[in-house]
Every structure is written in structure tokens, then in C-alpha cells.
Design a protein that fits this description.
Blueprint: E1 2-7, E2 22-28, E3 32-36, E4 43-55, E5 57-75, E6 78-81, E7 92-102, E8 108-127, H1 130-148, E9 155-164, E10 168-180
Antiparallel strand pairs: 1-2, 2-3, 4-10, 5-6, 5-8, 7-8, 9-10
């Protein structure tokens, strides 16, 4: 009598990590029972969940479109500013671009020209409705979950829960994914 690839658990049973789910053995009239390797596929529904909290009132930094361009020169890492005043903007982001001066294809002088660009920024208050905050939270949570899941075609269910407070909406997105969870183990006697 040959028994190989026999499931040791039934559908719907709860299993723990390390549980043997498929076992194989041979039972002969003269040899008795012997354990052999079993091949099989073990799939399980795995749940991934992500929570996001979205405030109804948020402050966002945006560029106004105004900018200042200034230059400086560095000689042996010693900066010489070609401008005298501070920025005219109250709040600004600074981007620095450095270019080394080269004589030949691979021979650089100890001279560097730095371009300094100040972009004026301002704070904007954004107020979302509870429905908008819920949609933003769902999109953020889905994006985070999809980065974690390798086979998106194996997603068999999506569940969304949310809780509203006076000043925020907390969203939880749960993906139910069918995954191969079995591992092959050595046969130890």
C-alpha cells in the first residue's frame, strides 16, 4: 500500500508555523511502514493590514514661483560669496549646484563654482471633508500594502474599516491574499 502526499490537516483547520501539513509513507507487507518524501502544494489566505490617519486640517508647504539665483566661488574649499545680502524671502528652500572647473578630460582645478537658488515658499492650510480624508487614507494604505505584496493577482479580497473623529479619519485597509506557504523539509529519522 503506497501513501504519499497525504494531507495531515483538514480544510478550515488552524495551523501554526512549523506544523507538518503533508506527510508521506510507504507501508509494505514485509517491510512495515517507512517514511518517504512527499510533494504537495500548501496555499493559505494571508491577511495584510495597513492603518492610515488623515487629519482634516493640514498645513502644506508650497513654492510661490519666486526665486533668487546667486553665485559663489570655492578655491580649495574656501568659499567666496559674490553677493552681499541675505535672501529677500522670509521662508525659502535652497538648492545648491556645484560645478568643478576642469582643464582636460580628467584634470580638475581646485576651483568650484556654486550656483545657489532660493525658492520662496509659503504655508497653506488645507481642510478636507471626512469623505475626502477617507479616500486619501484608503489610497495611502493601498499603496503601502501593494509595495509589500509581490503577486497582486493573488489578492482575493479587500476590506476597509474607518473611524471618524472630530479632527481626523483613521482608515484600515485589509488585503486577503492567497499565498504559497509550504516549505520543503529534510526527512529525518
Amino acid at each position: 500500500m503506497l501513501q504519499t502526499g497525504t494531507p495531515l490537516v483538514k480544510e478550515g483547520d488552524t495551523v501554526q508555523e512549523g506544523s507538518i501539513l503533508i506527510g508521506g509513507w510507504l507501508e509494505g507487507k514485509y517491510t512495515g511502514m517507512r517514511y518517504v518524501h512527499a510533494n504537495g502544494s500548501v496555499q493559505a489566505k494571508v491577511w495584510y493590514s495597513q492603518k492610515e490617519k488623515v487629519e482634516l486640517k493640514q498645513s502644506k508647504t508650497v513654492r510661490t514661483g519666486n526665486e533668487e539665483v546667486r553665485y559663489s566661488v570655492k578655491i580649495n574649499n574656501f568659499p567666496i560669496n559674490l553677493y552681499k545680502t541675505l535672501s529677500n524671502f522670509e521662508k525659502y528652500d535652497t538648492i545648491r549646484e556645484n560645478k568643478k572647473v576642469k582643464l582636460f578630460s580628467d584634470f580638475y582645478l581646485p576651483l568650484e563654482i556654486e550656483k545657489i537658488i532660493n525658492y520662496e515658499v509659503k504655508e497653506e492650510e488645507i481642510t478636507y471633508t471626512k469623505e475626502q480624508a477617507k479616500e486619501i487614507g484608503i489610497e495611502k494604505a493601498k499603496q503601502t500594502l501593494e509595495e509589500q505584496i509581490t503577486n497582486k493577482e493573488n489578492i482575493v479580497g479587500t476590506y476597509t474599516n474607518y473611524e471618524e473623529t472630530e479632527d481626523a479619519v483613521e482608515v484600515e485597509v485589509i488585503y486577503e491574499v492567497l499565498e504559497e506557504i509550504g516549505t520543503k523539509e529534510k526527512l529525518v529519522f
